[in-house]
Amino acid sequence: MKLEEFVDPYLGRTWADLGARVLSSGNKVAVTLGYPAEGFVDELQGQLREHVGSGSLELEVQFAAPPGRGFGQVKHIIAVASGKGGVGKSTTAVNLALALDAEGAKVGLLDADIYGPSQGMMLGVGEDRRPDIKDGKFFEPIRAHGIKAMSMSFMVTDNTPMVWRGPMASGALQQILTQTLWEDLDYLIVDMPPGTGDIQLTLSQKVPVSGAVIVTTPQDIALLDAIKGIEMFRKVDIPVLGVVENMSVHVCPECGHVSHLFGSEGGAKVASELGVPLLGELPLDLKIREQADGGRPTVRQEPDSDISRLYRDIARHMVARLWGGGSGSEQQGPTIRMVDD
Asked: Is 99 in contact with 91 (CB distance < 8 Å)?
């Protein structure tokens, strides 16, 4: 069978249809995909060998990000959102960003939760660390664990409450997004605040977002809010790349007993009803929270663990959707003064 007729495992379409570049010489095959897949080569090679009926095939996978809707040198902006708080959205966002980096992409992470920024802590950035200022008007993103990051937590302390009204917070978000020197990025992951308020609408209407991912738990109330989030993005013409079900199952570390503490298959049901893919299911595991709170998220702390492999699989599936086509009035906000100190 022809190599171009191989059906991509994430998209269910042939590489020929997707426009993958496939080159072969003898038993060596080089393929250029529209999503990073450094951690997927062995599995993909096995599937390709089965497809062509040859056990000697050797695969090399290269990555070229498809053209995006981003700005400057940022190709794609992906919003990671949730309909309500407490579903593990920020932990999911940082691990997905680190997973894309591990897969071979150039990645940035923007903490868009102006009122309750948490990515500084999750990335292990010290409270006294501030972004450098260039030319008096641009932020240099802080590098942490191999990715570029920007967060309001880099500018204030934990004891500084944000008491801005909605339009002020939206203006601050626009400023730290557009006045940060992201340079060349394949993907900028945006950790959204929970809900469907002013900041979500600002990002949706004023920023060229390529797609959104909704994080939920199996609980009925969380699923209802997830549906609201999906519908919000659809109304502003942002493709919903899929749903991530967090805290899906708990496996007892002592006896291996499996418990569905918050229900089961809720994310799959929502995804099916709304016609979006279920990108993956993540377990309820104390280590995920402890590692993120300790500044070394799971994908960095335990890169070879089963949970890290789940994050990497979800991240590949998420950006593969971009390759496959994925599915207000302006108000004055506050100005953030940039001071070298």
From this structure: no
Identity at 310, one-letter amino acid code: L
Secondary structure of 197-234 in HEC code, one letter for each residue: CHHHHHHHHHCCCCEEEEEECCCHHHHHHHHHHHHHHH
Residues 72, 318, 214, 240, Cα dihedral to 10°: 70
What DSSP character marks residue 184? S
Phi, psi of 316 (to 5 degrees): -60, -45
pTM of the model: 0.88
Mean pLDDT value of segment 10-25? 94
Task: Name the β-bridge partners of 62.
Answer: 32
d(CA 98, CA 95): 5
The length of the chain in residues reads: 341
Share of the chain above pLDDT 90, in %: 50
> Strands 185-191, 74-81: parallel, antiparallel or unpaired by DSSP?
parallel
The CATH number assigned to the domain with range 74-323 reads 3.40.50.300
Where are the domains positioned within the chain? 3-63, 74-323
Beta bridge partners of 242: 213
Q: Which two tokens stand for residue 158?
A: 């934990």
Looking at residues 222-246, what average pLDDT do you find?
86
Q: In what order do the strands lie in the sheet with 21-25?
A: 21-25, 28-33, 58-63
